[in-house]
Every structure is written in C-alpha cells, then in structure tokens.
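Practice problem: Formyltetrahydrofolate deformylase
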Amino acid sequence: MEERILLTECADATGIISKVTSECFNYQVNIVHQDQFATTDDNRFFMRTVLEGDFSCENELVQSIRDLLPADAKVRLVSRAKKRIAVLVTKEAHVLGDLLIKSYSDAMRGQIVMVAGNHPDLRDLVEKFDIPFHYVPTEGISREEHEERMCQLIDEANVDYVVLAKYMRILSEKMVARYPLGKLINIHHSFLPAFIGAKPYQQAFDRGVKIIGATAHFVTNNLDEGPIIEQDVIKVNHRYDARTMAKAGRDVERLVLFRALSRVLEDKVFIHGNKTVVF
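Answer key — structure tokens:
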C-alpha cells in the first residue's frame, strides 16, 4: 500500500479531527500516525496525518476534506518520495560533509543532486559522492549576475529545497523573492536572535557568553530573522576565545541543520507567520 501525508491548516473549530478522520475512513485510507496543534493567540489549527491505502481518488479526498473545514482551510496530500536538494557552499566542509554522508546513506528523506559554490575548495569532497559541483566565481561580475547564474543552476536541477550550508553570502531581495517561502533553508552559527550577521562567534566572545549555539531557519529578506526550524546550544566558558568557540560550534551546526532538514523533508514543518509549528 502507498503512504501519503495529509497536511491540514485552518481556523480552529470544534470537530475538525473528527471530520478529517471520518472522511479518511469514507475513502478507505488508514491513519498510521497523526499530530495536531492549535494556537491560542490567533486560533489556528495544524495537523499532519500519515495515511496508507489506495490514493487513486486523492483529488476527491482532498476536496471533500476541504469542503468540510473552515473556508480558509489549506489541505494538501503529499508524496513520501525523496525530495531533491541543492546545497550552496563557500569553503567550510563540516556541514556539507555531514549532509553528503546522510544523503549517501539514506539517513534522510532527500537526495542531494547538486552543489554550487562561490569558491572551488569543496569540489573534491562533493565529487567523491558522484554529485555535480558547480564553481560560480564572483570575480569580474556583478552580484546580480552571480546570483542569476546560481539561480539558473538551482532551477535547472529542479530541486525542492535549497540549503545554505555555511554559504557566506547574503542573498539579495530579488533572489529570495524568486523562491517560495520555505524553499530556502539556512544554518546560522548562533542561537538566534542573538548575534545576527557576520562573525557571531567573535560577537559571542566579546559579550562573554556562557553558551553558544546554532539556528536553522527559513530564509527571508530580513537577515537571519526567518522562521526558526531548529536550535541547540553547548556550554562554553572563559577559556574559549572566538576561534575555539567556532571549532566547538561545528558539531552543533551540523546537528541542528540535519535535524531541521530532516523535519522539513518529512513534511513536519508548518510556517505560521514568522514562526513554525514542528511536529
């Protein structure tokens, strides 16, 4: 039997779960797992339902569920097939290397199909996994031309998600607007909203913090302020300088990005304003 994931978002109301599950029963699809959450500040309802069965009438199922829910309901039935991923990089290898291994070993429901970088340093690493690496230099061209070449590579690869794996360039508003919210994912090396922007480990050292962290978030036009997917921290002390903080932070960066990307690939993340609901 096939498996699909039913994603439901609407205004909260009495009986939503009953209506959805009853309609699934009417279409003879089995509920394997279900998570739901309702906000209290604006009364929004979110539900993720794993289904199995015959989906030859999937459009009718989705429409019948939508007809039973509040008028603003968003209902999607998505495949469990692996998603296609593009990764943008600069020079740092630890986050990219972890994702390449996870993709190679089927540890996530996604496949890296292309890596592009503004430096050639990571080509050898990427090509060990038989994945195309595209070097797009910035010298001699404008920022707009460089981004257009990057976007062409992304579009030609027909990917579902673009991961900025320590890609040390700020995307322009034009490039961000080219893709729907939720397609671009970034790993930032601080526990946001602390230490936005460049050199967060130096900022953390200057401030004398006792924890450092990493944040995976969706990209918006507000630098490092997009909806947060996943965060984590580790302890540091007075013996750490900015360099040793950066070294210690590499593990938490790769773990946070992998956990965030895994949840996105499993369709466990709803974007709600500038927040997320993560099942």
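Discussion: The chain has three domains: 2-79, 82-179, 184-278. Students who identified this feature from the tokens alone can consider the problem solved.
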